[in-house]
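Morning. Coffee machine broken again, so started the prediction first thing and wrote up yesterday's gels while waiting. Chain of 469 residues, entered below exactly as on the submission form.
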Amino acid sequence: MKSVFVSLRSDQFKLNRHQGCCSPAKSWTGRTIFLIFSLLLFLLFLCPGQAAQRPIRIGVVSMITPVDTVKYYQDIIDYISEKIGQPVEMQYRKTYDEMDRMLEQGEIDAAFICSAPYIEDKRKFGAELLVVPQVDGSPFYRSFIIVHRDSDIQSFDGLRGRSFAFTDPKSNSGRLYPVYLLAKRRDRIENFFAKYLYSYSHNKSVELVAKKEVDGAAVESLIYDYMREKKSPYVQQTRIIDQSQYFGSPPLVATPKTSTFIKKKIIEILVNMHQDPKGKKVLNTVLIDRFIQAKDSNYDSVREMQSYVTKHNSSTVAVSQSPEPEVVFFGVIPKDNPRIAYEKFQPLMDYLSEKTPYRFELVLSKTYNETIFALGQGDIDMAFLGPLTYLHARAEYNAVSILKSITENGESFYRSVIVTKNDGQIRKLSDLEGKKFAFASMQSTSGNLIPRFLLAEDGIHLQQLEKSF
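Came back before lunch.
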């Protein structure tokens, strides 16, 4: 049975109101509490859980840090969802290895991955090339070898005996290229560098060099140029000492198990995205000209490097890694937009991953129902839920509450607050009659159920509002 983290127990929240806003005033009677729970149960049975439509799942790997990854890709994911008329869900993973497994097993429909993993996935299970980003008129990119701007290192050879940051063990620009340089020198990474590490994101590698935590790093030119355009202070503390030949840009690929209809629709939407004003705005934000269909031969330069490394120094192609820790998938109800949700919850995931033998992955869904359904189906292991969603999950799937959050004052309850403009004329709930009112999700306790109850208690029903949404 899956466990549910809830932010508070559903039988422990307290509500107070004062002049239309929920604030400390008077205690609620037992009759009122009974009424609230009657309404809770009524709404639950009025809107029983249904098997939510399975969303299209598109994977994204941590070429940049988790929060930055969401900022970079979420608008593209949302755009696909809007155009295809079906929920599309981002599946974030830290490593290419994890994403490769998900693609092979059909757990996701498509994924933005690196050039080298695409070649391996195509060979291993027939991964299909869908589209690639075109940046500055080119569907190609490079690997940059960077050092601190004040460093005395002037070339790759100057990194001998120094510390170095790779990105991912399967990364083309972040590992394969510098390994290729070493293979041409008949050398190995363990002999050449005094110390090396994996940052698992290109912008993290840039940060490590900027802070002088490592002497050098291999990073993707697209991310480096993106950071430079966005005036990242870390980029300004670094300089490039070596550039690779051109490689085919990191593609969006699909698994053979993905339906032909979905693959064709995703291609159609993305290759025409730049012609739509809304789509063009999204592309401009992430500094992409457009998406195009590319030839598999664009990746031959990567294949040639792989072949050379295999021939001259095969032991450096694959990285011997310790067994991956078990992954715990942690769901969050969509109270915030994805960017805010990642900024709020990713530090907690990182903390739990550090302090436990597990790796915690954040899973965001579009709706409350999707989160509950994912919990019931075992797609996520636990979730932060509110009172109403907890009761729903308990009724549908016998979910149990195992933890609750508390405030800095040691309180385990919260309030619903109704807000208006500072300069408005609304001073009490009765002033809302005939006015517009925005509710949150139907299954939100503080954003729907409680304000409806407060309005009803003041004699205001939905029909008496000018508009509610």
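The chain has three domains: 1-52+323-469, 56-138+250-292, 140-248. Going to sketch it on the whiteboard this afternoon.
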